[in-house]
Design a protein that fits this description.
With 263 residues, this protein is α+β, with helices and mostly antiparallel strands. The chain has one domain: Fumarylacetoacetase-like, C-terminal domain (Fumarylacetoacetate hydrolase, domain 2, Alpha-Beta Complex). It contains six helices and twelve strands. Strands 1, 2, 3, 4, 5, 6, 9 and 10 form an eight-stranded mixed β-sheet that branches. It has a four-stranded antiparallel β-sheet with strand order 8-7-11-12, with no helix packed on it. Strand 11 and strand 12 form a beta hairpin. The longest helix has 17 residues. The radius of gyration is 17 Å and the shape is globular. The chain starts with 5 loop residues before the first helix and ends with a strand. Bound molecules: 2-oxoadipic acid and magnesium ion. 2-oxoadipic acid binds next to strand 1, helix 3 and strand 5.
Length: 263
């Protein structure tokens, strides 16, 4: 324990929410609380979730972070983390990203799972995850760190809901048994230039491993993954900075195309 009080944790949670809502970057929490532990950081995230629910938002799922080499190299660390998704995050198919409502948005390509059954415990494998999955969709994640210059420690990131900001889900739903998710190829093009390619195996060898990791992390905290929840399994490619006027097209094998205009 770093000695941070419950009241200080409440204040940290309120600060990252205020920064998100005002689109105004803030200093890292670690500057004030240099010994902040991972446990305390998740406790701040939990308070943040409670505050969002009190504001009337629903928690609709989870996002995994740092599940691919591309993202681990970007942030210089290898420990996967999770954050919460809320019902203010999904963008409709043709809905643009309004830059003025963000601080420093970046876009990622991800494979998303939607669960039909709950999952809990330590004893789950890829098969258990696929059986509990309703469908798989293509997705874009827009991350937007609330910290100045997108610089933060792991603990800061966790307390800030690991930069969660918006998601866009594809409307082509497939059964997890209808395609080899490890071999599923993804290409991202920004303003007419192909920026990167990747495939599902970039995420912990198979994106279902990100769901397994999430369920195990939740279990250690006495929680579980509920039926109906969405799980973003983490960026296959790196995250790319967005500016006004950008047009993003992500092409997923089997799952179709997603586009995002930044206005
Ligand atoms: C943390 C969020 C990472 C992913 O897909 O790896 C993430 C960040 O890079 O700000 O969403
Ligand atoms: Mg992500």
């Amino acid at each position: 324990m770093s000695g941070i009080s419950k009241q200080q944790m409440d204040e940290c949670a309120k600060l990252t929410i205020a920064a998100e809502d005002a689109h105004q970057a803030m200093p890292q929490l670690i500057h004030t609380f240099p010994d902040l532990t991972f446990e305390e950081a998740y406790a701040i995230q939990d308070i943040r979730t409670k505050l969002r629910v009190e504001q009337g938002f629903n928690a609709i799922g989870y996002k995994m972070g740092l599940t691919s080499k591309a993202k681990q190299q970007m942030l210089g660390r290898t420990e996967p983390t999770y954050g919460r998704l809320f019902n203010y995050m999904p963008l409709d198919e043709n809905e643009p990203l309004e830059f003025k409502n963000h601080i420093q948005p970046k876009v990622e390509t991800e494979i998303a799972f939607v669960m039909k059954d709950s999952l809990r415990g330590q004893d789950i494998d890829i098969d258990t995850v696929l059986k509990a999955t309703d469908y798989i969709v293509a997705s874009l994640e827009i991350i937007d760190s609330r910290y100045i210059d997108f610089k933060f420690s792991s603990q800061d990131g966790i307390a800030d809901n690991i930069s969660a900001s918006r998601i866009k889900l594809g409307n082509k739903k497939i059964s997890p048994y209808d395609t080899d998710l490890a071999e599923l190829g993804i290409k991202i093009n920004i303003n007419g230039t192909d920026i990167a390619t990747g495939k599902g195996s970039a995420v912990l060898d198979h994106p279902a491993n990100a769901v397994i990791m999430l369920v195990k992390m939740l279990h250690r905290e006495g929680k579980f993954l509920e039926a109906g929840q969405i799980v973003m399994t983490g960026a296959v490619t790196a995250a790319y900075k967005l500016s006004v006027g950008d047009n993003v097209t992500a092409t997923f094998d089997t799952l179709g195309k997603l586009t995002l205009a930044v206005v």
